[in-house]
Write a structure and sequence with these properties.
Largest sheet: 10 strands, antiparallel
CATH class of the largest domain: Mainly Beta
CATH superfamily of the largest domain: Glucose Permease (Domain IIA)
CATH architecture of the largest domain: Distorted Sandwich
Bound molecules: zinc ion
Strand content: over 45%
Structural class: mainly beta
Number of domains: 2
Length: about 300
């Protein structure tokens, strides 16, 4: 128990690195793997950086029973951005890296100790139609859940984002990711995004570049825009008063996609920003920390690389 409690502590940068050189056919391919995260915990984003001593043709990363798409950042540096879902049970998980240069392969595997995180409970009062929806909308809700599921499962195969992620509105987040949610006295699924206390009408900017894959009214999230940033990374922007983009649009970072409103299941105007990463629900503030303007520890995602 003591070990787990100690693992709860690191909200500062966590840095670990190791080196491996596995040889085949007499040649070597050395891979150094470095991990950086605000914390290795439920709902967090982890940046995995792989540095090879010779240019690799291919690098594969696997964690949480999923392939985690890796991309080349410079001739000798590859990266993968890994999300730890809200439902991941705190435990030790194995992360594996397989690199190949020509006929030479290298394999590294290490443990990821995922810590638990205590989430607060939030109690909200909303229109009862959003807590116990009438039978007339049951089919709509089911259909929308299926659509979202399909979107999370079919991301762009290439990286569309570049540079740092930026917050979509200037205001602070006021309702924490992961909060246990009680609506009108009834428990509902935990809060899978961050809420920003923005006044109605505030322009909402794309946190990074990508393709708009959904831009319309959904039952729970109201007027919603989903941006596919590629390689499994998505932004969902909810409760808009108006939408200024169309499905299929390719948007640059910072492009206004709509205005803050109070549509869907809300208590008042605000922006809800949700992030999906490889299917995992992660804290947008963790993404800002990992790939945002405050990025440190040698992880540099300047635009135009
Ligand atoms: Zn929210």
């Amino acid at each position: 128990m003591k070990v787990v409690l100690r693992a709860l502590v690191p909200l500062a940068a966590f840095v670990a690195a190791w080196t491996s050189g596995v040889q085949a056919t007499g040649q070597r391919l050395d891979v150094t793997v470095a991990i950086r995260a605000r914390a290795i915990a439920v709902g967090e984003v982890v940046v995995v950086t792989m540095t090879t001593d010779t240019p690799a043709d291919e690098v594969r990363v696997k964690a949480f029973d999923r392939d985690q798409p890796a991309f080349r950042d410079s001739p000798l540096v590859w990266r993968a951005i890994v999300g730890i879902d809200l439902d991941v049970v705190p435990n030790t998980y194995v992360l594996t890296v397989d690199a190949r240069a020509g006929e030479v392969v290298s394999h590294v595997s290490r443990d990821l100790l995922v810590a638990n995180r205590e989430f607060p409970t939030r109690r909200l009062t909303v229109d009862d139609a959003y807590v116990n929806p009438p039978a007339a909308v049951t089919e709509r809700i089911t259909q929308e859940a299926k659509e979202l599921d399909l979107i999370w499962k079919s991301p762009a195969a290439t990286r569309l984002w570049t540079g740092a992620f930026e917050r979509p509105v200037p205001q602070d987040a006021n309702s924490a990711f992961g909060s246990r949610s009680v609506f009108n006295g009834e428990s509902r699924s935990p809060h899978s995004g961050a809420d920003f206390s923005s006044p109605a009408g505030t322009p909402i900017h794309a946190p990074n570049a990508g393709r708009v894959v959904l831009a319309r009214d959904l039952y729970f999230t109201g007027n919603t825009v989903i941006i596919d940033h590629g390689l499994g990374l998505f932004s969902l922007l909810a409760h808009l008063s108006s939408i200024d983009v169309h499905e299929g649009d390719v948007v640059a970072a910072g492009r206004v996609v709509g205005l803050v409103g109070a549509t869907g299941r809300v208590t008042g105007p605000h922006l809800h920003w949700g992030v999906r990463l490889g299917g995992a629900r992660v804290d947008p503030l963790s993404l800002l920390d990992a790939l945002g303007p405050k990025t440190t520890a040698g992880v540099d995602f300047r635009r135009g690389r």
